[in-house]
Amino acid sequence: MDARAWDERYAASELVWAAGPNQFVEQECTGLTPGEALDLACGEGRNAIWLARQGWRVVASDFSQVALDKGRALAGDLPVTWRCEDATTWVPAAEGATFDLAVLAYLQLPPAERAAAVRHAYGALATGGTLLVVAHDSSNLAEGTGGPQDPTVLYTAGDVLADLGDASYDVVRAERVAREVTGDDGHGGEDTRTAWDCLVRVVRRG
Fold first, then answer.
1. Average pLDDT, the chain
2. pTM (2 d.p.)
3. Among residues 122, 145, 144, 148, which one has the least CA distance to residue 133?
4. Can you list the domains of the chain with their CATH numbers?
């Protein structure tokens, strides 16, 4: 999908995604010392806004201007800078930008484009900075629920580490994680199903 298609999707409803942060972003970033954060492919900014409320100064980017406008309205006076950029082509480091945290949450792309975005996010980190990637895991298609049904845009923690190539980093977590999803069971009630995500958290070495 291109930016125009996402603009249309974001314009069609009040919020496409939940207002609160992703559970794994909240879990992994709680306890980190706030500094400069980058949220690539931020959508409507739910993670960026949560980070700003924790004391981070955030640059939030997405290629959908409609999503960014919605995020800006939700953020109000919080310290978030909104940038209309494509995560696969924008290189923050080329602008001299360095961050203490870079987040890529549910950016589901084919391998070459995904690898570019991962490398751009990692390259924007200062020494000691954290890269956090959360995405629908490849195993979710057969073993989980929801998420994209195209296997070419699903990936694993191992794929993310491979995307980083010979970069120097320490792995904090690189694994498959379960996310419980509650929905209509078709009989007037609710049921809980398990979705599988990949989670990678690494710290850049000097």
1. 91
2. 0.90
3. 122
4. 3-204 (3.40.50.150)
